[in-house]
Specification:
single chain, FAD/NAD(P)-binding domain, D-Amino Acid Oxidase, Chain A, domain 2, 2 domains, six-stranded mixed beta sheet, about 35% helix, globular, FAD-dep_Monooxygenase_BioMet
Length: about 400
């Protein structure tokens, strides 16, 4: 594999991870990112579940996530009237994961790739691809290009790579919900390793508290049409603050206080997912992470699935004679699992829609029974997926 080149499109989560693993597999990876610079201090937060932490451990960066993140061992649920609905916790006693700011995770992975000597170029927005036999050339909109033996599209749910190689693939599905959130300080809430969920009278609300008192919070709301992120972010911050004040002013403590204490910019995003695409690759080009199986944030698995993809793909490439054979095996190994997670996460999101009084009554009546059942049932299929870099890929 001497001097074999790998082009990586995207420097979020999957991009740096797969670049590091591909370097171990004998390739020379090069990362190209569309944004003009790093995004270490933008965006909200995400959960790295323990299946994802195992991949970060293999990459040598798990410790930084544990130090910075909020440990998650349970999820507590209340109704908008303050009624205790129950909790979900893992009977094994292991943390479900750690919640960290998205930008921090990006930074940790980017720095790990740079420490491996992997080049990263910003301001490289993919314009087109040219495939000739077993070679691929990426053409960027600044007029430059890069040629390689394979290309990995890690460019997110609205992937340009996917649209170029699979123009007839299904578009992402809008779930009917938008997500918004921010960071607050100054509200007296004790720290505990739990996420608090409130099925509010008008909208869903969730929050976690870091050891230093910083509060990470988010909300979900029904929103019509098929909004884009750009469309939602074009609405002035003052208008979003007015909307949130109206949504949550009559909710249980500490929800209104958290909203009032939020001085940071409020991030607003539409929630889309991508369930099933007929093929994950074409010739020497393959897609991973949100570019091929985006999941809504409800199950807290998006980052972890992307990290799993990175290791499994690189292992397939290491153990196969050709990239196309490796891509075929990668898709075979991953499709069933990721589609199950996307479906599971979509189901969780649908429970947040209830605002009609009759729907709310039956949800609050039945949810305690569902939560007890969920706590008794094992989520091992979700959190305890294991893949070892040193094992040979099964045939």
């Amino acid at each position: 594999m001497e001097n074999r080149k790998a082009i990586i499109i995207g420097c979020g989560i999957a991009g740096p991870a797969v670049a590091i693993f591909l370097k171990r597999a004998g390739y020379e990876p090069h990362i190209y990112e569309a944004q003009p610079g790093h995004d270490d201090y933008t965006g909200l937060f995400l959960n790295v579940a323990r299946n994802g932490l195992r991949i970060l451990r293999e990459l040598g960066v798990e410790g930084r996530i544990r130090e910075e993140g909020i440990e998650l061992r349970a999820m507590n649920f209340h109704s908008g009237s303050g009624k205790w609905l129950g909790k979900i916790e893992d009977p094994s006693g292991e943390p479900q994961g750690f919640t960290v700011k998205r930008g921090f995770l990006h930074k940790v992975l980017r720095e790990a790739a740079q420490q491996e000597g992997i080049p990263i170029e910003f301001g490289k927005r993919l314009a087109n691809l040219h495939i000739a036999g077993d070679r691929v050339t990426a053409l960027f909109d600044d007029g430059t290009s890069a040629e390689g033996d394979l290309l990995v599209g890690c460019d997110g749910i609205h992937s340009r790579t996917r649209r170029l190689i699979l123009p007839d693939a299904p578009e992402p599905d809008y779930t009917g919900l938008i997500s918004f959130g921010g960071f607050a300080r100054g509200v007296d809430i004790p720290h505990e390793p739990a996420q608090h969920m409130v099925f509010g009278k008008k909208a869903f609300f969730g929050y976690l508290v870091k050891r230093d008192g910083e509060i990470y919070w988010f909300g979900n709301l029904d929103y019509p049409g098929r909004p884009s992120r750009k469309e939602l972010q074009s609405i002035p911050q003052a208008e979003w603050r007015r909307v949130l004040d109206d949504l949550y002013r009559n909710e249980i403590h500490p929800v209104p206080d958290i909203i009032r204490a939020t001085k940071s910019e409020i991030g607003v995003y539409p929630i889309y997912d991508l369930m099933s695409v007929p093929s994950w690759y074409k010739g020497p080009v393959v897609l991973i992470g949100d570019a091929i199986h985006a999941t809504s944030p409800n199950a807290g698995q998006g980052a972890s699935l992307a990290l799993e993809d990175a290791l499994v793909l690189a292992r397939c490439i290491r153990d196969n004679r050709s990239p196309e054979a490796a891509f075929r095996q990668f898709e075979l190994l991953r499709r069933e699992r990721v589609e199950k997670v996307v479906k599971y996460s979509r189901t969780i999101g649908q429970r947040k829609h209830a605002t009609n009084p009759v729907q709310v009554f039956f949800r609050d009546l039945m949810l305690p029974f569902f939560l007890k059942q969920a706590s008794r049932q094992s989520n091992a299929w979700l959190y305890d997926y294991r893949v070892d870099w040193h094992d040979k890929v099964p045939v």
